[in-house]
Amino acid sequence: MVGWRSLLFVVLIAFIAYNLQTPFSKANLEPSLVGKVAVVTGGSRGIGKGIAIGLGETGATVYVTGRTVSSSSTNTGGPGGVPQAGTLEETCAEVVKAGGKCIAAGVDSGNDEQLREFIDQVVRDHGRIDVLVNNAFSAVSWLPKHAGKPFWEKGADAWDQVNHVGLRSHYLASVFAARHMTTAKSGLIINVGSFGGLNYIFDVAYGIGKAAMDRMAADMAIELATDNVTMISLWPGIVATENIQDGALGGMSERRGLAPGPEFDTAALVQSPLAETPLFVGRAVSAFARDRTKFDFTGKVLLPATMAAGYGVIDERGLRTPPFNSVKFLAAAALKSTLQEQGLFAASTELFKAVKPTANMELFWKKLPDLTVPQFILKLVAGSPNL
Ligand SMILES: *[C@@H]1O[C@H](CO)[C@@H](O)[C@H](O)[C@H]1NC(C)=O
Prior knowledge:
The chain has 387 residues and is α/β, with parallel strands linked by helices. It has helices spanning 4-20, 46-57, 88-98, 112-126, 142-145, 151-154, 156-184, 204-224, 242-245, 266-269, 278-290, 304-311, 327-334, 336-341, 359-367, 376-382, and strands spanning 37-41, 61-66, 101-106, 131-134, 187-192, 229-234, 301-302. It starts with a helix and ends in a 5-residue tail after the last helix.
């Protein structure tokens, strides 16, 4: 009979060994993306904008797509039907300032023919498409408006609002890009997924769409493998986007039914280093795009915060948000008020603006190890018990 002490010891050794390995390493990175062409769908704001700037910082030519090209474009996609912050032209100005090239492409991802024509045009103009980031999502204002209602009251509208520009457009953009990437025997496709693909957060159609994005990456990766094309699903953590800062999650706490797991006070975390900035996600994506070993990760779900830890990526606050499957993340969330008193939580910042963290903040958020647990444990503890 193995005693609990020996068992604990084995688990501890395994945990330490797991944390000593560094799957993502700075040593594997190409220095830049100069000459590479990337497409980010949904680039007017939020995570898409952060990824575009992150790619631009390392010299890529970035196409950002969306419907809000300039401030004169019609835009009622914000919470409550108000215009959302940001336009493609504003994103491009920041991509260029960061050192990249940028093209604002007025493309409705919901229109199959426009999407195909656009990707073919990119390849006609540059002879290549190296990176596709499937990020466009049009239900940012629809979701909070219908929070608290069950799926049977939302009807077909939920499916179409959440999964047309989102799941379906990601599938098609991947089809069109893969035609060129497989011919070139090189390329990277990233689905911007979510922890919501594993566990209920807002809405049934949302969970289905996010789960399908992970599965899409896994299954497309199998067929893309013969042609040296990498595909992954990326799960950002809580990201301090313009819409989230403007309260896009308001009303989301009106969750019905069973309590599906630990509750986080998202509104409080968004103003802290436990929230990733969009640029942090972008810098992790840029590093991954430059990683010579990226194909080793094909088909997987990856967390930008885990990549950032391995690559040594920090955000514009000078900080590195720990991944949500880490002891550091969970402990910091639990000890929020203590960390606040120590001044370690005071990191709220205007998006994309550099700020100077204190030495203690740097020590805590940048240097202290994260102590992560393997991702499959998330499936065991937080996923629906469907296995
Ligand atoms: C696979 O693609 C990468 C870039 O994505 C490239 O560096 C490498 O040479 C390619 N390998 C083969 C065997 O074509």
